[in-house]
Amino acid sequence: MVGLRGVGKTVLLDRMRDDAETSGIQTLCMEAPENRSLPAILAPQLRQALIRLSRNEQAKNFAQRALRGLAGFAKALKVKYQDIEVGFDFDPEPGLADNGDLEHDLQALLEAAGMAAQKAGTALTLFVDELQYVEENELAALITALHRTALRRQPVVLVGAELPQLRGRMGWAKSYAERLFDFPEVGPLPPPAARIAIVKPAEDQNIRIDEDALQRIIQETRGYPYFLQEWGKHAWNTASESPITLRDVELASTAAVTALDEGFFRVRFDRLTPVEKRYMRAMAELGPGPHRSGDIAEQLARQVTSLGPTRSQLISKGMIWSPSHGDTAFTVPLFDEFMRRIMPGAEWRQ
């Protein structure tokens, strides 16, 4: 079982999912949005996978039993998690995943589903993006259920992606999570890989890019995969002929930053309260980071302890993370520059 953390995680998650589907593995593809429960996002995806498994003659009876378990699971937890919406293909089987206790019922449900996958000669893989939005008690229940299927050697796997605090969150949810999962960190692309990401697609279309233009793109994007896409797109649209020049990239940079400000950055900014915006602006005043909590507090003329709740809320929203004790960093590159653009001057200190 794998937990991806860092920038570019969603791109890698999508590639792993596509590879799994090509190999015939049963995949459950989910993104955990805010304010939705884990049972709500899991149940419809699990139903689809079990229906597919029920078409396999060796797995049919086991898949149908798991579908009965899913019906009991959803009905029993509907009172607590009112956002569960899933069709029922069979009546519940009394005693199977229907206690109304998420941790107990999820173990029984995934065990039944894992048995069906095993009989079909395949695996059941849960791909979950944005794990940071799964509540801690629900995350704990998922880890416990996966631990149970692992002990029983059933082919149920989780590939989850979250911002860099993933390892810590899963460790808090269940102390043995670090032994159960691998946590590769997906960071910015190193310069050679960033170079390939720009040059290879252009060369495939018989387009060249000047060396100084390429270096400017790598410098501006910090190797962040999504930003490489944005700069590459705008450079392509700006250039009138091959090769793409430094002047083209300079013009493209203005367009790329504007597009990010209006979309990528602004969406995140608009989720913040006024107090949280001031905290982020204080961080931006210090530069890209990471920053010591005391330095941020000094910018705000506040005590470190009084800012603890604000910092915790920003971490839970995925805006910042703690790379080491007492340090705070933006989860998205270039966000410090955006904060200085959107909150210029010194009025934010008031």
Termini gap = 48 Å
Query: H/E series, N to C?
Result: EHEHHHEHEHHHHHHHHEHHEEH
Q: Helicity level, as a percent range? A: 55-70%
CATH architecture level-2 label of the largest domain:
3-Layer(aba) Sandwich
The count of helical stretches stands at 16
Query: Within the CATH hierarchy, at the fold level, what is the topology of the largest domain?
Result: Rossmann fold
Estimate nothing, just give the exact number of structural domains: 3
What is the CATH level 1 assignment of the largest domain? Alpha Beta
Rounded to the nearest angstrom, the radius of gyration is: 23 Å
Strand order of the largest sheet: 1-4-3-2
The number of strands is 7
Strand content: 5-15%
Shape: globular
Uncertain regions spanning at least 5 consecutive residues = none
* Mean pLDDT value: 90
Major sheet summary line: 4 strands, parallel
Structural class: alpha/beta
Description:
With 350 residues, the chain is an alpha/beta fold. It folds into three domains: 2-180, Rossmann fold, CATH 3.40.50; 191-262, Helicase, Ruva Protein, domain 3, CATH 1.10.8; 267-349, Winged helix-like DNA-binding domain superfamily/Winged helix DNA-binding domain (Arc Repressor Mutant, subunit A, Orthogonal Bundle). Helix content is 55%, strand content 9%. It contains 16 helices and seven strands. The chain has helices spanning 9-22, 38-53, 60-77, 102-119, 136-151, 166-173, 177-180, 191-204, 211-221, 225-238, 246-262, 264-269, 274-286, 293-300, 308-316, 335-342, and strands at 2-5, 26-31, 124-129, 156-162, 291-292, 320-321, 327-330. Strands 1-4-3-2 form a four-stranded parallel beta sheet, sandwiched between helices. The chain has a three-stranded antiparallel beta sheet with strand order 5-7-6. The longest helix has 18 residues, at 60-77. It is globular.
